[in-house]
Structures are given as C-alpha cells and as structure tokens.
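Handout for the seminar on molecular recognition.
Each group receives one record of this type.
Step one: identify the two inputs.
Step two: read the structure output and locate the region that could contact magnesium ion.
Step three: write two sentences on what you found, then compare them with the reference statements printed after the record.
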Amino acid sequence: GELIGKAPSMQLLYRTMQKVAATDATVLIAGESGTGKELVARSLHSGSNRAAGPFVALNCAAIPETLIESELFGHERGAFTGAHRRREGRFSEAEGGTLFLDEIASMPLPLQSSLLRVLQERRFTRLGGTGEISSDVRVVAASNRDLPQMVADGLFREDLYYRLNVVGLEIPPLRSRREDVPLLAETLLERSARAHGIKIGSLPVEILRRFMEYHWPGNVRELANAVERLVLLAEDGALQAGDLPPEVARSTVGSAVPFRLPAEGLDWESMEGDLLRQALKRCDGNRAAAARLLGLAYKAFLYRLEKYGLASDDSDIGTEGPDMGNITRG
Ligand SMILES: Nc1ncnc2c1ncn2[C@@H]1O[C@H](COP(=O)(O)OP(=O)(O)OP(=O)(O)O)[C@@H](O)[C@H]1O
Ligand SMILES: [Mg+2]
C-alpha cells in the first residue's frame, strides 16, 4: 500500500521522508492512531539502501513488559524458566535491515537503557548470553503519545528520546487534512472492491459529505474500515448511506469541530449573519444547498435571510472572511 494524500502537510512529510530514507538516521514517527505510522516506516525502509534486507516490526505495547527484552535481543537456552531453546531476537532478525519499534512509549525504563546502548554502541548481548553481538540495524520508532511530556514526567529517558528523534516525522491527523478525504475514500473504495471481487458504483455524494464532516478520531484506519463496511453491505454494487457506521452517519457540520463559546462571549447576530453569507457563497448562491449545509429547514433559512437583509438576489455574499486587502506587511 502506497501513502495516499496530497494535502500540503502530507507533501511536506513526503519531502522529509525522501531526504532521510536513504540515510541510516534513526527516525521517530509521531502521529495519532491510524495515521499510517507503520506505512511510513515501511516506505522509509523500501526507499533505503537496506531495502533488500529485512523489515522487522515489533509492537512494544502488544507484548508483556517482562518479555520485551528477550523479544528484542533474544535469549540463550536456559536463560530463564521456560527458555527451552535459544531464540534469536528482533535485532538479529533485522540485521542488515530496519527494525520498526511501534508504540515505543510502552517500553519499560530499564529496557530504554538497553535500547539506548544498542543505538550508541551498535552491539548487544542476548539474555543469558556472555558474548556481545554486533548489530547493523536501522531503527525507526513510532509513538502516538506525547513523548516530550513523558520525558518531563520522568517516564521516558530524555537521552533516548533525543537519540531516536534525530529526525522527527509528524503525520497529521485526517481531520486536519480534510481535502484528502475524497481521494482517500475513492482509492480505498477501489482497493476494497478489488480485494473482495465486487463491482462497485461510484461514491454517493451523501456519503462523501458525511465523510467530509466527520472528525475521524481513528484517522485513515477508521475511514478504511467504514469504506470496507459499505462495500461488504452494498446491494447490487450500490453503496448505501444507511450502512455508514452510526457515529459517521450522525456527524453534522456542527459536530465536526465542536464550536466553543469564547471566554469573552460573542456577537450572536453578526455571527449568524456571517454564517448565512458563508453558506450562500460556498453553495454559489444556491439557497436550498446553503440551508442543508446549515442544517436548517428551507423556510427557517429563508426567514433568516430576510432578517439579515440577505434575501434579495443582489445582496452581497462576496466576502467569506475579514477583508485583508488593505493590511500592509512591514
Ligand atoms: N496516508 C495513507 N494512505 C493510505 N493508507 C493509509 C494511510 N494512512 C494509513 N493508511 C492505512 O490505514 C491503516 C492504519 O495504518 P497504520 O497501521 O500504518 O497506522 P498507525 O499509525 O501505525 O496506527 P496505530 O498507532 O494504531 O498503530 C493501514 O491499513 C494503512 O494501510
Ligand atoms: Mg501501528
């Protein structure tokens, strides 16, 4: 799977990825759940001169703390109760390639020290082993937690943080790049339809509108799942808005970004008038569409247009925001 997305924030990400892929630099990827951290890690690997080597992933949150050390560095036979045979760790498996440490924030403090040591000295010791093993592995780590805050709270080693964060990549959440939603939805739809061998019609406007308005706490993974669900429940290849997950179906313009009353209060009438003008402009003056955009019944919308003197056809709907035309920069 290739990374999909053309938003400026994604293009910036691609540019940085291109620069660091070929280097051996340790990379720390930050991003909310489902933003594509693993996808970015894989793509860094395939863009590197280690591409022919292994890509090994370890999710530090998915294994019990007591097993992480042996998982990373391996163990000799008899190293601990139950260690019946020698085991290669992930560092050995990733030799000559890339080791992706997902959810690095879940790594216990003592192991953070061991990890720092491998990164600095490029050698490690197997559990229960005596000799040191030299290691040629590029480490890419990822976290969806606030590592600087964890450093401040003494939960994550500061030196390891800086060692990992030689290059930091930040993947923006989906709700901050809504312009990518249509492209993502279409592409994920094609992929899903192909994977299930189903012929699917185009994405209905009503569904796309819900997709644009929803805030996607689970980011691209959540969108992919929603699309998958629509494909599986489609009837004769037609996607149904009724098959949307309830939370997506419920989303409206208003709930997309919860509006908070500013501490200093606001001027209700000027805000209402301004929203009416914005809606009209966005819909090219189409009142029915503007009413829908505001979640108002057509009559209620017309009433408000009258109230704010926007009902005549030649009323000014020209400006969407404050006029910045005469601000001079110094
Ligand atoms: N920009 C993108 N383009 C295409 N697919 C994407 C993109 N971002 C994420 N995905 C897809 O979404 C799913 C989740 O991505 P991934 O597993 O990389 O997320 P993650 O950031 O590692 O999430 P988590 O923190 O929950 O582990 C995957 O199926 C991935 O292919
Ligand atoms: Mg992941």
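Reference statements: The two ends are 47 Å apart (CA to CA). The chain has three domains: 8-172, 176-256, 268-307.
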